[in-house]
Amino acid sequence: MTFTAAIVGRPNVGKSTLFNRLVGQRVALVDDLPGVTRDRREGKARIGDIEFTAVDTAGFEDVIGESLLARMREQTERAIGDADVVLMVIDSRSGITPADRQFAQILRRHSVPVVLVANKSEGKAGLEGAYEAFELGLGEPVAISAEHGEGLADLFAALMQYVVDDAEEDDAEQAPETPLQLAIVGRPNVGKSTLVNRLIGEDRLLTGPEAGITRDAIAVDWAWEDRRIRLVDTAGLRRKANIEGKLEKLSTADTLRTIRFAEVVVLVLDATIMLEKQDLTIARMVENEGRALVVAASKFDLVEDRKAALALLSDRLQHSLPQLTGIATVPVSGVTGAGLDLLMQAILATHATWNKRIATPLLNRWLAAVQERHPPPLVNGRRLRLRYITQANTRPPTFALFASKPGDLPDAYRRYLVNLMRQDFDLQGVPIRLMLRKGNNPYADRD
Which of 34, 145, 169, 439 is the 20 to 30 Å CA partner of 132? Predict the structure, then answer.
């Protein structure tokens, strides 16, 4: 990326719409309700041949203290401090408001350069508001319509001066190692954002006693022991029957999309409450998507009998999630930082298992030994023949089993094979897919 541009302004002026336009996809939640965005969201943006990092921020509110709005303002101010250029967005159709004037005054006190963006400038009414923006004292406004993609050529020209020539970068820097896609999920208020902040070593995400603070899925690029990681904090997932309103539905859809694109998912539990039905629902959802799963028992510093709590959690996971036998479970505390190194070790180990490939000759020797020890059942008086097995894919480990009559193989025997494969090939804690295929029988015409 050549530079970082923070998109700021008062609530509901179209900051997230502009962010989505710049990054080329609808990743930030957008709604007519003010205050939808709370955390900073970063994305790879592009206008013409300019590539840069765009940062979406919460709407600026003139509040201080410990309230949620005050913490949101603090996140916005941090984004301004970290940026190379600030895009201050106003709503041309609403005209200049006292909040716009106050925010412009604050920006003038910063050393960071500002590009004034007059959004919603399409039509005569919009252009009049754009001309009015001159009085903010931030230079000539760039009139655009983020919704319709108008005026981006003018924004391109305004940003050209901030482009840094990076032609001298090394080849290794131009083609970095692909980061591990890591998603943090769980019920509301179990400590997901606190855990992420402790992992990355800064207050990057909003936290607090209020449930449901996180709305967007917020991605943070980070590294642990030289391993690049793209860590995504998500909104809490409630039971489907309890989801209320359009905004929560959008947040839930954003979280589910994050799970689908993740490689490893960390399910955060509240150790003071431990495994609830919704936790199991989320875990099964992750398994159905074929993602690798690690369980983090958060707030473990508040648990009195820790040995008993871990034993109970392990027992419940064993009985409730037999399809993920051996899943890594790590007690952690986002407040004290306890257990975070062990959590990262478990994540990387589970990721390696999820990517594991087993040689075909080894699989077929294993299959022959299994059938000798525990043959498949009889069907219509004849023994089913399991002829051949091979690994078709990884991420998750997926195997193709060729049989004489695959449709007649009982589910119980299929589960037996999967469980034995998990044990014998050390595939603990990851989903395993076993596909049954019709094998070619050279003696079919003689039967």
Answer: 34
